[in-house]
């Protein structure tokens, strides 16, 4: 028997995953047209975020080992945000550091595969997961802060508030809400709010890109 | 701009704009000609397919600029 909240978590996970995969696909189309190496981080980042949301959704309906799905959710989320942040970092350094190409992405991907391998191979106790969850959300907030800072630097001549900045700000609020929830598990509404604000952020991205492809 | 609007351009003018040596520019133009994006003969003419490609490319560039990625 599912409670209404579990149904919300399940659907928000699946819808968020669908939206993230759509953004990843649209950014892949952009990457194929422009062919700058650093742009590949964006579709990979959103694909990893989509997989993270998919895991968080499926754990409410499938009998996946809870510990494993929680770890995968955290690792995929952190890697996704790290890919997005590295994309902005490499964009800034693309003139001076052209020689490094996609090496940072490959290194991060290798790190991610090793981390997943360790989590799968060793069944860490649940208390470990709970003790590091907070740090993961703080790291995610730091990475999103860097993305928003880079974006505002790149768009400093724009008069109106960019939808893209708004979308990333919503994702940062989601991480903050999850951080509050990891501090106090009884604060369920913080977790519920995180689901809705994440959906809002991803919908903003999809609408913005779709509009761009139609009208620009 | 006038050349762009008419769809016909002089090769020397294009060479100045893209800042490529003439041999490399000719290689690129032959490739674009084979793809049907331009007609490369005595004059350089953009095709319907070429103009459609440019319109799509500009959309992509605009989106990436709004994401602060270009």
List the main descriptive attributes of the protein structure presented here.
heterodimer; A: 216 residues; mainly alpha; Rhopdopsin 7-helix transmembrane proteins; 7 helices; 81% helix; globular; B: 70 residues; three-stranded antiparallel β-sheet; 11% strand
CATH class group of chain A: Mainly Alpha
The gross shape of chain B turns out to be globular
Total strands of chain B: the figure is: 3
Computed Rg of chain A:
17 Å
Helix content of chain B: 55-70%
Assign the structural class of chain A, choosing from mainly alpha, mainly beta, alpha/beta, alpha+beta, or little secondary structure: mainly alpha
**Count of runs of 4 or more consecutive helical residues of chain B:** 4
The CATH topology label of chain A is Rhopdopsin 7-helix transmembrane proteins
Integer-rounded radius of gyration of chain B? 13 Å
Largest interface: A-B, 24 and 14 residues
Overall outline of chain A: globular
What does this molecule look like?
- The complex is a heterodimer of chains A (216) and B (70).
- Chain A has 216 residues and is an all-alpha fold.
- Chain A has one domain (4-215): Rhodopsin 7-helix transmembrane proteins (Rhopdopsin 7-helix transmembrane proteins), CATH 1.20.1070.
- Helices cover 81% and strands 0% of the residues of chain A.
- Chain A contains seven helices and no strands.
- In chain A, helix 1 packs antiparallel against helix 2 (41-58) and helix 6 (163-183) packs antiparallel against helix 7.
- The longest helix of chain A has 31 residues, at 4-34.
- Chain A is globular.
- Chain B has 70 residues and is mainly alpha-helical.
- Chain B has one domain.
- In chain B, 64% of the residues lie in helices and 11% in strands.
- Chain B is built from four helices and three strands; from the N terminus they run H-E-H-H-E-E-H.
- Chain B has helices at 2-6, 11-18, 22-34, 48-66, and strands at 8-9, 38-40, 44-46.
- The longest helix of chain B has 19 residues, at 48-66.
- The relative contact order of chain B is 0.12.
- At the A-B interface, helix 1, helix 3, helix 5 and helix 7 of A face helix 4 of B.
């Amino acid at each position: 028997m599912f409670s209404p909240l579990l149904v919300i978590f399940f659907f928000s996970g699946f819808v968020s995953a669908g939206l993230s995969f759509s953004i990843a696909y649209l950014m892949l189309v952009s990457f194929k047209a422009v062919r700058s190496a650093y742009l590949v981080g964006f579709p990979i980042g959103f694909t990893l975020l989509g997989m993270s949301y998919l895991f968080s959704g499926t754990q409410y309906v499938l009998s996946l080992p809870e510990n494993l799905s929680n770890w995968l959710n955290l690792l995929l989320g952190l890697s996704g945000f790290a890919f997005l942040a590295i994309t902005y970092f490499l964009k800034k350094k693309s003139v001076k550091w052209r020689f490094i190409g996609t090496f940072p992405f490959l290194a991060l991907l290798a790190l991610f595969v090793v981390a997943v391998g360790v989590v799968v191979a060793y069944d860490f106790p649940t208390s470990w997961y709970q003790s590091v969850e907070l740090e993961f959300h703080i790291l995610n907030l730091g990475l999103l802060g860097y993305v928003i800072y880079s974006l505002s630097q790149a768009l400093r001549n724009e008069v109106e508030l960019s939808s893209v900045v708004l979308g990333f700000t919503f994702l940062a609020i989601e991480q903050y809400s999850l951080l509050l929830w990891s501090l106090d598990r009884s604060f369920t509404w913080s977790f519920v709010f995180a689901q809705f604000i994440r959906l809002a952020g991803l919908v903003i991205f999809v609408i913005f890109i779709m509009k761009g492809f139609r009208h620009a | 701009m006038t050349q762009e609007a008419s769809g016909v351009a002089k090769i020397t003018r294009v060479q100045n704009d893209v800042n490529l040596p003439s041999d490399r520019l000719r290689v690129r133009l032959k490739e674009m000609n084979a793809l049907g994006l331009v007609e490369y003969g005595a004059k350089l003419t953009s095709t319907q397919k070429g103009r459609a490609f440019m319109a799509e490319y500009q959309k992509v560039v605009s989106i990436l600029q709004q994401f602060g990625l270009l």
